[in-house]
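Thread: Modeling a multi-component assembly for a lab meeting

Hi all, long-time lurker, first post. My supervisor asked me to bring a structural picture of a complex we are working on to next week's group meeting, and I have zero experience with this. I have the sequence lines for every component (982 residues in total). Could someone generate the structure of the whole assembly? Inputs are pasted exactly as I received them:
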Amino acid sequence: MSLFSYAAAQGYIRARLSRLLDGPAWAGLLQATSRTELARLLGATAMASAVTPDGHIAVQALRGEVARAARVLIRFLPRGSAELLAWYSRRFEIENLKAVLRTVHYRLEPSRASASLIPIPRGSASVRWETLLEAGSVAAVLEELRESPYARPLENAMERYQQERRLFYLEVAIDLFYFQRLVRLMESQSGREAADARRFLGRWIAVQNLLWAYRYRLYGRMTPEEIINFTLHRAFAVGLDTVRRVSLGSLLTVEAERLGFRPSPGLSEVEMLTEIELLAERERFRNAAAAIGRPLFQLGGVLAYLWLLEGEVRDLAVIVEGKTTGLSGSELAGRLVRAA
Amino acid sequence: MSMLAPERMLEANLFVLEPDLEVVTAALARMEALHLEDVVQEGWTPSSEWTERDNCYSGLTARLGEMLKALTGKTIPGREAQEEPDQDLRPSRDWREIESRLAAVETRVQAWQRRHKAASEAMDQLKLGESQVQLLLPLDVPVEDLRGLEYQTVTLGILPTENVKRVAEALFQIPFILIPLQSHSDRTLVLAASSTGNAAILERALKSAFFEPIALPPEALGRPAEALAALKRKAQEIHAMLESLDREREKLSAELLPELARLWSRADADGKLAQAIRRFPKHGEVFLISGWVPVSDLERVRTAVNRAAGHPVAMEVLKPDPDRQSVPSLVRTPRWLQPFEALVTTFGLSSYQELDPTLIVTVSFLIMYGMMFGDLGHGLLLLLIGLWLRHRRLDFGIMVAAAGVSGMVFGLLFGSAFGHQIVRAGWLRPLEGMWTVLITAVGGGVVLLNIGFVLNLVNAWRSRDWPRLLLEKNGVAGLALYWTLIGGGLGVYFGILPKTILLFIPVLSLVLWLHEPLAKWLWRSPSGSLGESLVTGFFELFETVTGYASNSLSFIRLGAFAVAHEGLSSLVVSYSKGRWGGLVLLLGTVLLVGFEGVIVGIQALRLEYYEFFGRFFQGRGLPFVPLSLHTGGRHASVGIRA
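Re: Modeling a multi-component assembly
Sure thing. I ran the full set together rather than chain by chain. Output:
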C-alpha cells in the first residue's frame, strides 16, 4: 500500500523536477548586473510567479510554493509518514508566527509585515495571520491562538516574556515544542521510514541543536543551566551530553569535528559558527541532490525533493539580497548552497 | 423580467456641503438604498477629522460593550433592549454626550468591577494557598518556619510538566531537591530546594524552564492543619462578599442597563455614519458621496436627501459601465421564492449583467427531485418533515416540503404510495416503462440545456460580449452545432431531414475551433498567439462535442433513479410480510426517505450546477450592501439578496 502512495509522490516529484533551475540559469542569475535584470531573467523561468508586475521579487511567495508542494505530497503519503511530513512542514507556519510576534511586539505596520509572511496554502494553516497581525498585543495574539497547538508552549513562556519584555522566550518555547514533537514523530516511525527520517531529519535536528547551544553561549552569554533548558535533550547525534559539554566550554572545532565538519582554520568561534551553518546547509543540499537521483519509494525521496526546493529558494534569496547590496557574482557564489 | 434580472443601477455622486453632511448621510443610511463606492479623484482626499471620529466611536462602542459584558455577560444589548436610532443623529456632536454619560456609568461599574476582581483574586489565592498548605500537612512544621530557612533555599511553584525533567538535567552542577507534588493537566506543582550558596543557579534553572513561583499566603500561620483552618475561614468570608457583590451587580444592572442599551444603540448608529463619512473624499468644504442606487429608488433618494439638507443637493447621476466598473447586484426575489434562493447562492451571486436563475432553478430542481423520488407516501413524509423543520424556524424546511409535494405529484403519475401500487398510475410505472422514463429524462435534460443556451445568449447580449454571443461553445455557433449534431443526426437517421444538413457540422466546428482568432480579427478581443489559439481551440472543440453528448446523457440519471426508487420501494414492501414485517417496512421507509432523499437532492443539485449553470452562469456578482444604520440592513432582513 505504501509503495503505491510513494509511487504517486514520486510521480509528482519527477514531473516537478524539471521546474528546478539548471546550471546555466543560476549562472545567469549570478551574473545579473541589477535587480531589474535579475527579475527579467527570473521571469523567464519556472520561478516567474515570484516576480511581481512591478518587477519586485517576492522570495516569500516561493517559500509558499515549497509549503504548497509539501501539502500536495502529504496527501500521497501513508498515514505515519504524512503526519511526520505535515509536522515538519509546520515550520513555515512557525516562521510566520515568529514574524507576527515580532510585528506586534515592536509595533510594526501590519500591512507591511504581511508582505514578509509566507503564503501558506489555505487549509494547511491553523491560524489566521491577518487577524494576528492586527492584534494589539502579544497577549492578544496568544488569545487568538488559544485553539492552536502553539497555545500551551507560548502560555508557559508568557510570564517570563511579560517580566522581561524579550521575545526570545516565546520563540525558544515554540522552537522547542516544534522540534520535540518532530523528534517524537520520528521515533514513532518504523522500518525504512524510521531510517530515512533519522538519516535526513535526524542530522538536521542535531546540527540545529549544536548551533543553538553555541549561539546561546557565544551571543547570549548564557549559563550552563540556561543553555540546557533552551536546547533539545534528545536530538540524535547532539544530545544532552554534547549540550552539557558545550555549556561548560567545549571548543566549537571539537564538537563540529564530531559531526564531521571541518571549519576553516584561524576563524573566531563566532565566524566559525556562521561557516558551520553554511557547511551544514550545503551538506543537506548535496545529500538531497544525491538522493533524488535514485528511485526512492520512501520518505527520503520526498524529503530530498523538498530540501532541493528549499535550497533553491534560499540561494535565490541570497542572490536577491546580494544584488541589492552590490555583491559580485563570484562573491555570491561562495554563499550559495549549490556548487558554484 | 425583473424577477430574472438584477435591479438596474445608476451611479450617483452627491456633492454635499460640510454643514449638511451628517443629516444627508443619516438620511441615506435610513433609506438603505445606496451602496457606497470608494472614489479616487485628484484633489479630493478623505477627512482625517472623520477618521479620528470613527476611531472615537469604535472606542466608545468597545467601552460600552465592556460595561454591558460586566453587567450582562454579553457585549451587545439584547434585541429587545436595543432602541431604534432617533431622527437626529449627529456623530460630530453626539460623542461628547455619549462619552460623558458613559464615563458616569463606568465610574460606578468599574468601582464594582475592582471590588469584584479583588475578591475573586483573593479567593483564587486562598484556594491556591489551601492546596499548597494541604501538601504540607505531613510535615507538621509551622509554615512560617519554612519561609525563614537560613542555609536552605526552598521554593514552591508551577512548572510545565514536560520541563520538570529538564530542570533536573540543567542542575547537573549542584546538589538539589526537586519534588513534583501535584500534576494538573500539563502543569506540575513542584518544591525545589538547594543550599543558599547555590540559590542563584537554582533560580536561573527554574526561570529558564518557565517556572512560576508561588508565595504561601500570609494568612497561613502555625502548623499546616491550623493554617488550613484559618484559610478556610477566610475563604468563607470572601465567598459571602462575592455573593453580596453579585446581588449588587443585579441592582446595578437593573438601574443602568436601559441607559447603557440606549447609549450603545446611539453610538452604534453614529459610529456607522462616522465609518461611512471617513470614506468620503473632501475638497474644500464639499464632500463627495459616491455609490450605486437602484433605478427604482433614485427619486426617493433625491427627495430624502433634499429634504434632509433643506435645499437641493447637487447630484450627478451616471449610467454604469459594467466593463470597467464593479456594479453591485441586487435581485429582488419575491417572498415566496426566497426559501429557494440558497439553491443559487450556494453556487454564487448573479453579477449585474447576468440573469438570476432562481426561478428556473427552483422549478427544474423540484421537477428533477420529484421524478427521482416519485412516491405519494414518501413525498408526504418529506412534506411533513419539511413543515416540521419550518416550524423549528429552519428556512430550508420549505424547500424540503416543496420537494415532498413534487415527490407526491410524481407518485400520482407513477401510481406508487409507500411502494404499493394502490393508486392508478397517472402516467406510467417506471419499472414497466423503463425506456420511456429514461428517454423522457434525457429529453427533459435537453430542454434544460437549451434553456441554459438561451440564458447565455441573453447574458452575452446584456454584456455586449459579441464573441461569447456568436462564436463560443455556448453561443449561437455552439447551439447550432448542438442541434445539428442531435436534431440533425436524428432527423437524417429517421429520414426526415436531408443528409446535406450534416455539412453544417464541419462549418460550425471550424467556427468553434477558430473562435479566438476570429474574435481577435472581428472585435480585437485579446487572445494568445495564433499557434496557441489553434492548439487550445482544437482541444476545446473536442471537449465541447463530447460535452454535448455527456451533458445530455447525464440527465438519464433522473430516469434511473425513478426506476431505482420504485424498485427499492417494492423490495421493502416484499420483505415486509413476515413476523418482522412492520419493522422492515419502518426501517426501509426511513432508509428510503432519509438516505435516498439526500442522494436525490445531491444528484439534482449536481445536474443544476454542473450541466445547467455551466452553460451560462458564473455567479461572480458583487452583493449590493447599502449604507445602513443596522448591521446587515433591511435587504438582509427581508431576504432580498444582498
